[in-house]
Sequence to fold (244 residues):
Amino acid sequence: MNEDSKAIRLNKYIAMCGICSRRDADKLIQDNRVTINGKIAENGAKVTDKDEVCLDGKVIRMNDEKVVLAYNKPVGVVCTEKDEHAEKTIIDDIKYEKRVTYAGRLDKDSEGLMILTNDGDLIQAMMKSANGHEKEYVVEVDKEISDAFVKDMAKGVYLKDLDQTTKTCVVRKNGKKSFNIILSQGLNRQIRRMCEAFGYKVTKLKRIRILNIELGNLDYSEYRIIRGQELKELYKVLDNRGIS
Fold:
């Protein structure tokens, strides 16, 4: 920390260690997996750099050097750090030398761009879907797409099981059975649910952009370090939305 004796909330400290988002950190604390100086931590606790914080018995510390990665998730890889039922988790797949975690998920059956980092503030910022972060996908469905489908998808779709109407979005047809869609919200399995509302089934879903970060030509399971102007632009976009 910048100030030796400055106390911060435990969930923020865990996020700043690059473990997970603050919301997920709250769950770790609730599950009694976090200790402070050998004692089980409580929600709302604060720590300083003089305290020893452990997760599952292992000491965790804040990272001095921040890293941000763009990664191409294959179908079948699960967005979780630890799951005994998963054939392969994202952490197993990426095999990065430093501990990183993901900022936003893709479901097991989807593929494409994910951002991973050890910067807890960046994770926190990107997890706030209300900030309107753009995410672009290429989608293939099981039958030919009509012009009405494209128009109605873009206007927003009422999802009965969530009792919620999606925000307006950009939809562009790029083939008989495929289209690009740009969303600014992140409901659970949103695109699949939107398509199902019109009687279409998604056969392939690939994310190709998050904000200014593009998937490019990364192969499955490959990653690249985001640097230079591209990284500056990412932080600038987030800062412009009132995030520090």
Observations:
- The domain at 8-59 is CATH 3.10.290.10 (Structural Genomics Hypothetical 15.5 Kd Protein In mrcA-pckA Intergenic Region; Chain A).
- The chain has three domains: 8-59, 68-127+217-240, 134-210.
